[in-house]
Structure formats: C-alpha cells, structure tokens
Write a structure and sequence with these properties.
74% of the residues lie in helices and 0% in strands. The chain has 385 residues and is mostly helical.
C-alpha cells in the first residue's frame, strides 16, 4: 500500500497537499490510542490472567468456548478487532494447551469471534470508524446496537455451537505450550483505567451528542484522552510507543492516499456509472461489500464506497458495515485481524492454521452470519419505511 501511495505521489496523480487532505487523521488518532491501550493490556499480563481463568480445570469445552467468545467480543467491540486479535492470541494458545489439541482450531475460533464481535460497536473495526466519521449518526452506539446487535448475537450463538462441535471432533494429542508474555512487570492499573475510560468516553459522547448536551468530540480525541494515563503513569513509555502497531497505521495513511488518488482520477466513478442508481440497493450493497472486500480488503472498499454513495441513509450504511465486516470470515487475507493472529501465533512459536483449513472452518459461520445480517437489516428497513 505504501509503495502504491509513493508511486502516485511521484507520478503526480495526487499532490502532497491533496494527499494530506485525503488522510482521515481522526481514524489514525483513534487507532494509535487503541493500539497503545491493547499493548499495555498485553504487557501487563492481562491476557495471561484471563487465559488461566478461562482454562480452569473445572470448565467444560462449552464453558471455555463461551467465556472465550464473550471476552473476545467485548474487547473487539471496545478496542477494535485488531487489538482483540493481539490480546486474544495467547488466550487461544492457552485453550489449545488446556484441551491438548492443535492450536489451529482455537485460533480460527478467535478470528471468527474477533470479526463478529466488532459488528456491535461504532469503534469495533476501522471500516465502522470510517462510516461513523462520515457524520450521519447522532447516536452511533445506539444505531449500531439497533441494526447489528441481533445478527451479531445470532452469529455468535452459531459460532459457539459450530466450534463446540468442531472441538469435540478434534483428536487430542500434542498441544502447544502456552507462552507467557515477555514482560510481567508493567503496572496493570493504568491499562485497565485507560480501557475503562475509553469505553465510558465513547458511550458518553454518543449519548451527549444525541441530546445536545455538549459538542461532539472526534473519536480520535477520545482515544488519545483515554490513552493519556498510560503515558502519564507508565514506567515503559518509550517501549509503549515502540510497540504500537505502526505497520497498520502506515497502511491506513497510505490507503487514504491511494483511495484519494483513485477518487480524484474519476476512473472508478466512470466504471460504476451504469450502476450509479443502484449503489444504495440492498442486493448491490451486499454483493459489492462482500466480494469487493475479498479483492480490495474491506477498509479501502468502504472508504471508496462512502465517497460514491449519494444517499447515506442508515439502512444502507449499516448493511455496508455489517457485510464488509463479516466478509472477513472467508479467507485469511479478507481481514487484517486474521493476519495479525497469524503473525502473533508465529511470534509465540506456534504454527497457526493453513489457508484452506481456515476457509473450511469459517464458511458455515460466514453463510449464517451474512444471511442473518441481510434479513435483519432488510426487516428494519421495511418497518422504518
């Protein structure tokens, strides 16, 4: 993505000023704060502590899966899917060790839970952040819960049942050792304070904006405010900055430049001109969001689609959000969180899943979750007129 952005700048397809204006710095600021919080949680041993609690000897497979899926869902909804992927990987490895099975299946369950869990919240994933930044919701938290909580819960319920079945059929044998995080000396309370503060600020800002109590604050500002205790009270500030996921931040900066150049060229608008009047149609949105996410990845797809849409009604935006998110449950490369889990697994010395192995396990969840999302959004669209 960065090579593409540099090429476009050098070739003059987009000027430096236009490139800077194309970057959504609000999204970049939000991700920076969230990545700092997620690393602080990991470094303080939160993942290890939660993993040990979930894998208590008295728990059955359904209980382990239930607590694991619920924890990952909450973290994904509050701290974005990418952060949940990093925090949840050592827990998935701990589950594999506890059940004496290969790590691949718990890691795939983590991928699915991270993706589905990010549906519930306007800050659950980067494409949701782009849709919220589009500025058409007075109460983003309420809107996402109203339109996507039901298909999200259906998807999580099916995920629980499906992976319970898969776990029960998996032969026991050699399992990975649970790798303890490198640093256990970081104080825990700043990370917990920052996480709680972020959750409170996002919800309070959404409610206050709807009632008009205070001016709306950008999500990026809320994230930086929430992360402030980490830098104020942490004894590892430089390490915290170093461990922020700079690769992902650079990807997003470059992605904004590339999509800005694409939109400036008018080529995409010309290509889609025969279907211009259908861009808001449910079937068209579903098809483009799902299949386009496999080709372009869901985040740049949503960024481009938002710029092409004329009618930004709630039903269309929620369908775009839900389908582009769930599209991540098809291939490993369909969502950045999947790749992060692969990278984190290898970092812990564990062999993750294979390409087609991943698709084979997630395909049933994908079918059920896409159907639930389309039907529920279609139902709400009908009754809302």
């Amino acid at each position: 993505m960065t090579i593409g952005a540099v090429f476009l700048l050098i070739s003059g397809n987009i000027s430096p000023t236009e490139a800077l204006n194309a970057i959504d710095w609000n999204v970049i600021a939000y991700l920076f704060g969230v990545f700092a919080i997620s690393h602080a949680l990991f470094a303080s041993g939160i993942s290890e502590k939660v993993g040990n609690w979930i894998c208590a000897e008295s728990r059955s497979i359904p209980q382990i899966l239930l607590f694991f899926i619920l924890f990952v869902t909450v973290v994904s909804a509050v701290l974005t899917n990418d952060a949940a992927a990093a925090i949840g990987t050592p827990i998935a490895i701990a589950i594999a060790a506890s059940l004496r099975i290969a790590a691949a299946l718990p890691l795939i369950a983590l991928c699915v839970s991270v993706t589905v869990g990010s549906m519930f919240s306007p800050v659950g994933n980067p494409q949701n952040l782009l849709i919220v930044a589009d500025g058409h919701f007075k109460n983003p938290v309420g809107v996402f819960l109203e339109w996507l909580a039901v298909p999200g819960l259906i998807s999580l319920a099916f995920t629980l049942v499906w992976f319970w079945y898969c776990f029960a059929r998996t032969p026991k044998g050699d399992a990975p050792e649970h790798v303890v995080p490198d640093s256990q000396t970081t104080r825990r309370w700043p990370a917990l304070l920052a996480s709680g503060l972020l959750c409170v600020l996002v919800v309070a800002d959404s409610l206050a904006h709807e009632t008009g109590w205070i001016p709306d604050l950008p999500l990026g500002a809320l994230s930086l405010i929430a992360a402030a205790p980490l830098f104020a009270f942490s004894s590892h500030r430089l390490q915290l900055v170093k461990e922020v996921d700079w690769h992902t931040l650079i990807f997003f900066v470059s992605m904004f430049i590339v999509t800005g150049a694409v939109l400036k060229s008018g080529a995409l608008q010309e290509w889609l001109s025969p279907w211009h009047d259908q861009l808001g149609e449910p079937l068209f949105v579903t098809s483009i969001a799902f299949f386009g996410s496999q080709v372009f990845s869901n985040v740049p797809l949503v960024e481009i689609y938002l710029n092409l849409l004329e009618d930004h009604n709630t039903a269309t935006l929620m369908l775009l959000s839900g389908i582009s998110t769930l599209a991540g449950n098809l291939f490993i490369l369909s969502a950045a969180s999947n790749v992060i889990i692969v990278q984190q697994s290898e970092k812990h010395g564990v062999t993750p899943f294979q390409f087609w192995q991943f698709t084979r396990y997630v395909l049933p969840v994908t079918i059920v979750s896409i159907a639930a999302c389309v039907l529920w959004v279609g139902f709400l669209r009908t009754i809302s007129g």
